[in-house]
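To illustrate the input format used throughout this study, we show a single complete record. The first block contains the structure-token representation of the backbone; no residue identities are included at this stage. The design step must infer an amino acid for every position from geometry alone.
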């Protein structure tokens, strides 16, 4: 777990406990050398990894995809397809979104990425926020399956 900025909000001690956590190059080099020279993962770290897998992956039996597809099938077969109706309150919601929330996201992007066109943050990671175009893409892919 390469943790360069301890004050950043995206760090998860719960997830990091299943890894060796390093905060600088010297620690990273030390861990790499340790494992390349036959070092073993501690039993405590292995137990923490199993806890993380149990928490996030349910059962590790090779059938997760089948359970997921069965869940989607059960959900879709439960009842009638939802229909979209127009409500005047939708206009108000969109106006408020574009007046207040959308600009705030844009300001966050400028602070986080420190650039205008590229979506790479100050640590070199690509943008992970859901955008309207992402939602539209998946809605367009899923909509034919629901009708």
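Output of the design step:
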């Amino acid at each position: 777990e390469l943790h360069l900025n301890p004050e950043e909000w995206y760090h998860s001690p719960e997830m990091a406990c299943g890894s060796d956590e390093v905060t600088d190059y010297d620690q990273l080099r030390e861990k790499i050398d340790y494992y390349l020279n036959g070092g073993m993962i501690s039993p405590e770290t292995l137990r923490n990894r199993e806890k993380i897998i149990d928490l996030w992956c349910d059962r590790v039996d090779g059938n997760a995809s089948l359970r997921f597809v069965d869940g989607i099938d059960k959900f879709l077969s439960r009842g009638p397809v939802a229909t979209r109706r127009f409500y005047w309150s939708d206009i108000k919601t969109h106006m408020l979104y574009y007046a207040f929330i959308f600009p705030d996201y844009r300001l966050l992007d400028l602070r986080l990425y420190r650039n205008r066109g590229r979506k790479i943050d100050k640590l070199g990671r690509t943008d992970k926020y859901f955008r309207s175009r992402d939602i539209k893409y998946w809605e367009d892919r899923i909509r034919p399956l629901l009708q």
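Structural context for interpreting the output: The chain has a mean pLDDT of 80. The radius of gyration is 22 Å.
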